[in-house]
Amino acid sequence: MRRAKKEGRFMGIAPKGYVNKITEDGRKYIALYEPEAKIMRWAFEKLAEGGLSQAEMLRMAIQKGLNTSRNNFWSALKNPVYCGKIYVPKNKDEEGYFVQGQHDPLISESLFKKVQDVITRKKPLHATTIASLDELPLRGFLACPRCGKTLTGSSSKGKTQYYFYYHCTSACGYRKSTTMLNKEFLKDINKYKPIIGMERFIKILSNTTIKNGCLAKMTFENKFYLKLLF
User: Fold this and answer.
1) For residue 132, what are the contacts with CB-CB under 8 A and spacing of at least 6?
2) How far apart are CA 183 and CA 185, in angstroms?
3) Whole-structure pTM over 0.70, yes or no?
């Protein structure tokens, strides 16, 4: 088995996204296995972006069809096999080292390193998540009414479904249902609907502000609309 590992062959039960196979001459190897491989690749890419808790990451992977447990899932994300590396363990006077595997890598080595940085917190997670879950659109944008810190969000599993909450990152214990806060936010923001006929201008103004940070590049026509609005 040690000789096989030195040759770059994976020995043992194939990790998620791979399947064990045997060549005609009896040599064991692993090959990519769909759709598990696609889901695991997505998990690596999503985790490298940051901003998701371990529970949310696992829940989303399971919803996509991955059959795994929490411990197995997180152990898999630390496995260098996915970037094409095989670890040869220490033996007597020989130190442990990695070799290039004979199997097809699921992800690049650079992506694997990014994920390890996120897992070990060497790379800070985004303070504000732009690509958020549908149930948590305001996560990272709300301030705690008790201590003023930014509210995060997560889910908890009930008997039949998941329940989502916005909660504080401090020890103040503030926690509210996302259903209630999302509803209140929509109710409040509907007060600021644009005047009929001004929708096109509002869109142009928003895009200009986001791209340039000011109104310096607005056309004469847009500035004219701005005077009408105010």
Assistant:
1) 51, 139, 140, 153
2) 5
3) no
- Taking only the tens place, the pLDDT of each residue in 29-70 is 999 999 999 999 999 999 888 777 777 888 899 999 999 998
Could you tell me whether strands 151-157 and 97-100 are parallel, antiparallel, or unpaired per DSSP bridges? unpaired
The residue ranking higher by pLDDT, 122 or 142, is 142
The secondary structure of the chain in percent helix, strand, coil, rounded to multiples of 5, reads: 40, 15, 45
Q: Which of 23, 30, 33 is closest to 8 using CA atoms?
A: 30
What digits encode the pLDDT tens for the residues 95-105?
Answer: 888 899 999 99
Q: Kind of pairing, strands 151-157 and 162-168?
A: antiparallel
Within 10 A of 3 (CB to CB), how many other CB atoms are there? 8
> Do 47 and 62 touch, CB atoms closer than 8 A?
no
Q: Which two tokens stand for residue 29?
A: 């190897």
Determine how many CB atoms are found less than 10 A away from the CB of residue 83: 20
More confident site: 193 or 9: 9
